[in-house]
């Protein structure tokens, strides 16, 4: 899909389902949860040369805060009472290396 509003950050730490795997080292601005939503198809939307919409999806990914870093400790996917999926990602501080 062609995606609009991509965040600056590193998407390479996401696995096939769009989540950072436990044990992955995360630095500031790395993407923790990759998420997109469809853009509405309206006549006023920008189109490419072939007449197709220029963008089909909008990026709603969740990034790590710039000043934070750590290692992904746990990733939890669950449903709320209304049946919608939600995800929590827990980071832990990196353990110092002893010499």
Write the layout of secondary structure elements.
Blueprint: E1 3-4, E2 25-26, E3 31-33, E4 36-38, E5 57-59, E6 62-63, E7 70-79, E8 85-92
Parallel strand pairs: 1-5
Antiparallel strand pairs: 2-7, 3-6, 4-5, 7-8
List keywords for this structure.
99 residues, mainly beta, three-stranded mixed beta sheet, three-stranded antiparallel beta sheet, 8 strands, 0% helix, elongated
The residue fraction in helices comes out at under 10%
Strand content: 25-35%
- The number of distinct β-strands equals 8
Order of helices and strands: EEEEEEEE
Q: Can you count the helices?
A: 0
Gross morphology is: elongated
**Major β-sheet strand ordering:** 1-5-4
Report, as a whole number of angstroms, the end-to-end distance: 48 Å
* Radius of gyration over all CA atoms, rounded: 17 Å
Question: What would you say about this model in short?
Answer:
By secondary structure, this protein is mainly beta. The protein is 0% helix and 33% strand. It has strands at residues 3-4, 25-26, 31-33, 36-38, 57-59, 62-63, 70-79, 85-92.
């Amino acid at each position: 899909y062609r995606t609009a509003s991509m965040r600056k950050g590193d998407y390479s730490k996401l696995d096939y389902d769009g989540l950072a795997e436990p044990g992955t080292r995360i630095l500031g601005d790395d993407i923790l949860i990759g998420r997109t939503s469809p853009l509405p198809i309206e006549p006023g939307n920008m189109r490419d040369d072939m007449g197709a919409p220029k963008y089909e999806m909008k990026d709603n990914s969740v990034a790590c805060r710039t000043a934070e870093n750590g290692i992904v400790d746990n990733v939890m996917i669950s449903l709320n009472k209304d049946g919608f999926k939600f995800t929590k990602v827990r980071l832990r501080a990196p353990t110092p290396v002893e010499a």
